[in-house]
């Protein structure tokens, strides 16, 4: 598409403006984590690694980080297993209400977190009689993490069709062998992309977590929220936030690299 | 000769559509058998029923005398060459070819040797380490063939395997396929919509129409003695004479077919003496089509029908032929080459003009 030079200039300005608006505050957080002044006076008079050291020594922050990682890993694992099984089942069998089920699986990602949170909180405590804690966070996260795996795998299955599996069965492989040697290897990159997104979703979730964590467990986002307004903790919060930005950017970046790489190799091998 | 495949009362319905309708068929051991028909005629469905990808609505499938009707694809001694080859993209050529042996737990050294042998059969020695995306369409087709042949199945099923190749490669592969089939001695069941392909390779051909076999015959019988106007129209160019035209030109009621190359075209002045051995018809040349090796003239008979006349371009007579456009001519053919048809079947639309069916693939649901 050809654009007039004037329009192109306008678009360029808007793009730059947008990126500035999004990323300046984030940069500020990273920069302030090195700001020597505890009140974040601007511009920084002096830079220091002191807050990073304090943060590294903060047992509360370290523990919260570890909880977040464990929760994200477990929720991702559950999503991988259930999401793959669900998308395989949806393809193999045509049953009444198939589209409804598909919609119901995808819905949690669109539901307001606060609704999901309250609903799960109620269900866990009253109906199931569970005590809120580590496990309830994992289950709550899995409900929406499953969507990324389900969607990725379903899209891949749709593109692959059933020919490769038929060829495998035709050559004498049973259903499990066919899955192991043909279907799974062809799903691998879709699974990885789905898993990375699921990990990213779980790692920075706060709303649902607030309602399902109980008083004993703190994930990193909750720890940040609780410490944000304590004046003596503010510099440490900045450091933790900077770490969080980096940690959540990595899986998203990898997932993107992965899915674009896959489309390229698929184009080369039609 | 022992029977490789035996189908008894085989039906497959998709909703209201009878894709295969009460089919009985025996295919002999070592035969090159083709199933020919237009899109949606049921030929691919029959193949998929034999392979086990579809379950029949009714009827029985026997392979080598054993009933395999309810068995899944991996428990049948048949292998398939798919239309799109379905070569596993995440495996090398060798891993693809070895796949069938690997899942049957053939020892590594043994399966390596057999894979090399199969690759040699399809003239792909030294390609074992290539990845599928590095291969051309023709090479991929050969890999698919090797991957199936390496299992030494009782029956090899081929689903329009040459459809994706260009014409020259397709002709070459037709000859090679026939040769491979003779060498390995395996029964080939070949599905195609291309009548030339079927005539070139087959021992016998079944012409499919609307889920039924219209005619089952050798290529020569099929072309020279078509059983119905459908077969006559689908295999080769048919010149159909029926109703008043038949009465007028042939001298009796019924349906008759005369192949274009059996008709000679003369100037009106050269009318032969009436001898009872020949049919003579007067007409006007509507179109002259130059095809390189031959010329086709489309002639509107005064009696009403339209006949195509083929003429081999063995001399420079083409100049004269081209000048005949719009002229009055006399068509003459021997009564021996006139084929009476049995049924009253409708001729498929467009087939009398000699065009080949143009749909590249069959869309069975």
Description:
The complex is a heterodimer of chains A (270) and B (365). Helix content of chain A is 77%, strand content 0%. Chain A is mainly alpha-helical. In chain A, helix 2 packs across helix 11. Chain A is globular and about 70 Å long. With 365 residues, chain B is α+β, with helices and mostly antiparallel strands. Chain B has 2 domains: 3-231, Rossmann fold; 239-346, OB fold (Dihydrolipoamide Acetyltransferase, E2P) (Beta Barrel). Chain B contains 10 helices and 18 strands. In chain B, the strands form 4 sheets. Chain B has a 6-stranded mixed β-sheet, sandwiched between helices. A 5-stranded antiparallel β-sheet of chain B has the order 13-17-14-15-16. Chain B has a 4-stranded antiparallel β-sheet with strand order 2-1-4-5, with helices on one face. At the A-B interface, helix 7 and helix 8 of A face strand 6 and helix 2 of B. Chain A: Residues 65-255 form the ABC transmembrane type-1 domain.
Largest sheet of chain B: 6 strands, mixed
So, CATH architecture of chain A? Orthogonal Bundle
| CATH level 1 class label of the largest domain in chain B | Alpha Beta
CATH class of chain A: Mainly Alpha
Number of helices of chain A: 11
Q: Domains counted in the coordinates of chain B: how many?
A: 2
Strand order of the largest sheet of chain B: 6-7-8-3-9-10
- Low-pLDDT parts of chain A are 263-270
From the spread of the alpha carbons, the general shape of chain A counts as: globular
User: What is the typical, i.e. mean, pLDDT of chain B?
Assistant: 87
The CATH H-level homologous superfamily of chain A:
MetI-like
Pfam families (chain A): BPD_transp_1
Membrane topology (chain A): Multi-pass membrane protein
Subcellular location (chain A): Cell membrane
Domain ABC transmembrane type-1 (chain A): 65-255
């Amino acid at each position: 598409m050809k654009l007039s030079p004037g329009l192109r200039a306008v678009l360029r300005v808007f793009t730059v403006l947008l990126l500035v608006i999004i990323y300046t505050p984030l940069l500020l957080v990273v920069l302030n984590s090195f700001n020597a002044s505890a009140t974040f006076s601007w511009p920084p008079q002096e830079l220091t690694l002191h807050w990073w050291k304090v943060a590294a020594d903060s047992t509360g922050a370290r523990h919260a980080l570890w909880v977040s990682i464990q929760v994200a890993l477990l929720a991702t694992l559950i999503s991988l297993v259930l999401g793959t099984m669900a998308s395989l089942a949806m393809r193999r069998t045509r049953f009444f209400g198939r589209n409804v089920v598909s919609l119901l699986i995808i819905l949690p990602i669109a539901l307001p977190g606060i609704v999901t949170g309250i609903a799960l909180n109620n269900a866990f405590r009253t109906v199931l009689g569970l005590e809120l804690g580590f496990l309830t966070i994992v289950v709550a996260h899995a409900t929406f993490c499953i969507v990324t795996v389900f969607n990725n795998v379903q899209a891949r299955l749709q593109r692959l069709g059933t020919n490769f599996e038929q060829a495998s069965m035709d050559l004498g492989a049973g259903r499990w062998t066919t899955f192991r040697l043909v279907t799974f290897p062809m799903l691998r990159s879709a699974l990885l992309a789905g898993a990375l997104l699921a990990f990213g979703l779980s790692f920075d979730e706060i709303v649902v977590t607030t309602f399902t964590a109980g008083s004993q467990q703190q994930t990193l986002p909750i720890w940040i929220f609780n410490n944000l307004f304590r004046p003596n903790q503010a510099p440490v919060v900045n450091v933790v936030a900077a770490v969080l930005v980096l940690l959540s950017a990595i899986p998203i970046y990898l997932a993107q690299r992965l899915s674009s790489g896959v489309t390229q190799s698929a184009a080369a091998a039609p | 000769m022992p029977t490789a495949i035996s189908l008894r009362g085989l039906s497959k319905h998709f909703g209201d559509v009878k894709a295969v309708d009460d089919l009985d068929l025996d295919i002999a051991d070592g035969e090159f058998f083709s199933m020919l028909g237009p899109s949606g005629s049921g030929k691919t469905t029959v193949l998929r029923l034999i392979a086990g990808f579809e379950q029949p609505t009714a009827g029985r499938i026997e392979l080598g005398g054993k009933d395999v009707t309810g068995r899944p694809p991996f428990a049948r001694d048949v292998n398939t060459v798919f239309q799109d080859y379905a070569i596993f993209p995440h495996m090398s050529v060798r891993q693809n070819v070895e796949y069938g042996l690997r899942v049957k737990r053939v020892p590594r050294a043994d399966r390596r040797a057999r894979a090399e042998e199969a690759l040699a059969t399809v003239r792909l020695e030294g390609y074992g380490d290539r990845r599928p995306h590095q291969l051309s369409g023709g090479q991929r087709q050969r890999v698919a063939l090797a991957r199936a042949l390496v299992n030494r199945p009782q029956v090899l099923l081929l689903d329009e395997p040459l459809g994706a190749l260009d014409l020259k490669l397709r002709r070459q592969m037709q000859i090679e396929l026939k040769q491979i089939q003779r060498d390995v001695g395996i029964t080939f069941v070949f599905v195609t919509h291309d009548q030339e392909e079927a005539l070139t390779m087959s021992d016998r051909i079944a012409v499919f129409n609307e889920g039924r076999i219209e005619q089952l015959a050798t290529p020569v019988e099929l072309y020279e003695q078509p059983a119905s106007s459908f077969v006559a129209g689908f295999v080769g160019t048919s010149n159909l004479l029926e109703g008043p035209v038949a009465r007028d030109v042939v001298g009796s009621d019924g349906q008759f077919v005369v192949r274009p190359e059996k008709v000679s075209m003369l100037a009106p002045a050269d009318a032969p003496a009436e001898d009872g051995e020949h049919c003579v018809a007067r007409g006007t040349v509507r179109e002259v089509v130059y095809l390189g090796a031959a010329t086709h003239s489309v002639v509107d008979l005064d009696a009403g029908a339209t006949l195509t006349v083929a003429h081999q371009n063995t001399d420079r007579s083409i100049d004269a032929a081209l000048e005949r456009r719009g002229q009055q001519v006399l068509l003459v053919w021997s009564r021996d080459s006139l084929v009476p048809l049995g049924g009253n079947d409708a001729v498929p639309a467009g087939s009398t003009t000699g065009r080949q069916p143009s749909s590249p693939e069959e869309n069975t649901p």
